[in-house]
Each structure stands twice: as structure tokens, then as C-alpha cells.
Amino acid sequence: MRVIFNEELKAVADDLDHMAQLVRTAITLAGDSLIDGDIDAAQRVIDGDIEIDALESSIIDQCVRLLAKQNPVATDLRVVVASMRLASTFERMGDLARHIAEASRRTYPECPVPAGAKPLFGKMRDFLNMTADRLVSMLMDRDAAVAESIITDDDTLDKLHHQTFEFALSDDWSGTNQQLIDVVLIGRFMERLGDHAVSAARRVVYIVSGFDPSKEPQRDEGTDID
Amino acid sequence: MRVIFNEELKAVADDLDHMAQLVRTAITLAGDSLIDGDIDAAQRVIDGDIEIDALESSIIDQCVRLLAKQNPVATDLRVVVASMRLASTFERMGDLARHIAEASRRTYPECPVPAGAKPLFGKMRDFLNMTADRLVSMLMDRDAAVAESIITDDDTLDKLHHQTFEFALSDDWSGTNQQLIDVVLIGRFMERLGDHAVSAARRVVYIVSGFDPSKEPQRDEGTDID
């Protein structure tokens, strides 16, 4: 029984690793579509989201079967429950990457955000690419230290996001209303990608250490501009 | 054993009912703060969010204990897993209501959206109040028909949300950039409240009927303005 459980849990862990890699690819390509005007990248994110959605369903089904057949307790149970929640977080990250790609495709060959805002969005893209790499290695290595770095560094993204609002409200802004809408929406999607990465990192800390950092005060800050 | 399980599951169901009521209150008060400039309502939403967060934690802990001790299978297991996911959805709805209240508080005594956009936001508020009532009765009565109505009617909210963009891009727009930022962000928060209500309704349909409507193509549409 124990052997079967470990095998089945291993299959879930492998699927989560795969999902993290797909999410990393989606984030990287969404950034390429936004900053480099790469329309093929945009289309790949949009088309690829269905695979991420399917993996979420599959992981949750596997976990439910595991719970029914194996009745895991203690650490094993915690791992199964956290795995389901991780899968849902990754699914949502795929959606957000898709939204960025859709906005980039809509304005192609123009960039959805005006030239003056592009350096800021470029920095956010770089930050999210680093976070996406960390997500994958945190999962592959079950590395709580990498997870902690995701949690700690998210402030950087929030500050960049805040600066997009400052730019939009400054005298330097000369964009259209459509561009302002895109600055706000795309900025929000990128900020939420960071929030979800933090939430995923907390689940991995929980799996690895048994300590639940989500019991600390909720994040999702930096949302409002005051 | 069976008796204990049902008792414990009943406690989870009661907490979910209570959570739905708190979310309804948060949505209603957030709408009052936005449309009626009710600063006390805004503060109540902001202060009350901590209770919603605590209920999510408590429900998930109860469900994990249930899984460990009672090893539910079949329908019971499905109910436990769906309950955990419902609690997370409600928690997120509390956050979104709080974001709306925070924006309203920031601009008090002014409304964050300009006068011309207010009728549209008023309609979105009315829609969300109706949805919040439905959420509560869907949970209390385990009523799949009410849940289905939430799923079906969400298009109405998406259309209203779309109209806020049309207004912002029309010649009738004369607001500031700050107001446009708020129109986009608050519109997004309201649209997401609708999406999460749909997701909650799908989980209730799943609990009641065993059919999982989330296996249909993902929603979260109407996000992008094309």
C-alpha cells in the first residue's frame, strides 16, 4: 500500500513539476509578446493554456483518488492537499499569462503600453522571468530557501507596479486612454502573477517544513494605489 | 463513525453558510461605499475581511482533519474537497470587496469613478448584490437551480464591464487619469467577483449533482477588451 501511495504521489509531483515548467514557458513567452512584440510567442501562450488547464484537472482528480484509496495522514495528507491548491494556483497563473499575450496580440505590431512605460514593464518582465525560474527549481528541488526568496522579493514587483501608476499620473504621460487601460490591466496581471507565485511558494514551504506561512497576514497588497 | 462524520461535515457546511453571508455583506457594503459614498460601509468591509480570512483557514483545517480521521469516499469526499475550494473562492471574494472599499475610502467624499460612469457601476453593483443573495441561498438550500442562474447570468456583468471600457474610450469621457485608473481597476474587481461567484456556483452544482461544470471550457472571459 505504502509503495503504491508513494508511486501515485510521485506521479502527482511529476505533473506539478511539468505544470511549473509550462507556467514558466507561458510567463516567458507572454513577456516576449509584450516587450518584443513577438506575435508567435503570444499565440503559443494562448494556445498552450488549455494544456495547463487540463493538467490542473488531472492533478486534482489524481489527488481525490489518492485520498479515497489510500487515506493518507499527517505529512502525506498535507502534501496531497497542498498539491491540489498548488495546481489551482498554477492554472490561474496560466490564465494571467494568457491575458497578457491576448493584449499584446490585440495591438500587434504596436506594443499595448506606450514607449515611456515600456522600460518599467521590461523590468517587471525580467522580474517575473526570474520568479518563473525560481518556481520551477523550488518545485524540482523541494527547496524552501528558493521558495522563501520568492516570498521576500515580491515587494520589488509591487514597487515597479506602483511606478506604472506614478508614470500614468505624471506630466510625462502622453498616451491614449486605450494605452492607459492597458497599462492598468497588464500591470495588474503582472502583479497578480507575482502574488500567485508567492502563494505557490508558501505552499511549498508548507510541504517542506510543515510551517504554514499563509497563516501570516494576507498579502495581495500593492493592489490599490494609495 | 458515520454520525461523527456527518456532524463534522455539518459544522463545515455551517461555516460555509456563514462565510457566504459575510461575503454577501462585504459585497453589499462595498457597493454602498462606491455608489453612495458610505465611508462607514467602506471601513466595515476593510475591517471585516480578517474574519473572512480566518474562516477560510478554519474550514480548510476542519476539512484536513476530516480527511485524516474519517477517510471519506465517493460523495462525502467530493463534498469535502469542494468545500475547501469554495472556502478559498469566498476568501478571494472578500479581498475583492475590500479592494473596492479601499478605493472608495481613498477618494472619499468623492466617488472614485466620474459621474458619467456611475450609472454603469450602479448597475454592476445591483447585479452583484443579486448574485450575493443567490450565493447565500444556493448554499443554504444546496440549490443547483440557483447555482445555474449565477452561471448563466454572468454574461450580463461582463457586458456592463465591457461598457465601462467603451465609455472610457468615447468622446463622452472627460475624467482624469486617476479616475480612468479607478474605472479600470474597480471594474476589474467587480468582474472578478462575478467570475468567482460562477466558480463557487460550479462547485455547488458539483456537490449537489456530481456533474462538474468546471470541466467545460474555462471562463474568466470578458477580461480583455477585444
Automatic annotation (TrEMBL), chains A, B:
Signal peptide: none
Keywords, sorted A to Z: Cytoplasm, Phosphate transport, Transport
Broad class of the protein's primary localization: cytoplasm
Keyword Cytoplasm: yes
Domain PhoU per the UniProt entry, residue ranges: 17-103, 123-204
Any Pfam family the entry gives: PhoU
Compartments (UniProt record): Cytoplasm
Any Gene Ontology CC annotation: cytoplasm
UniProt-listed GO biological process terms: intracellular phosphate ion homeostasis; negative regulation of phosphate metabolic process; phosphate ion transport
Function: Plays a role in the regulation of phosphate uptake.
Family: Belongs to the PhoU family.
Subunit structure: Homodimer.
This protein's name: Phosphate-specific transport system accessory protein PhoU
Organism: Bifidobacterium mongoliense DSM 21395
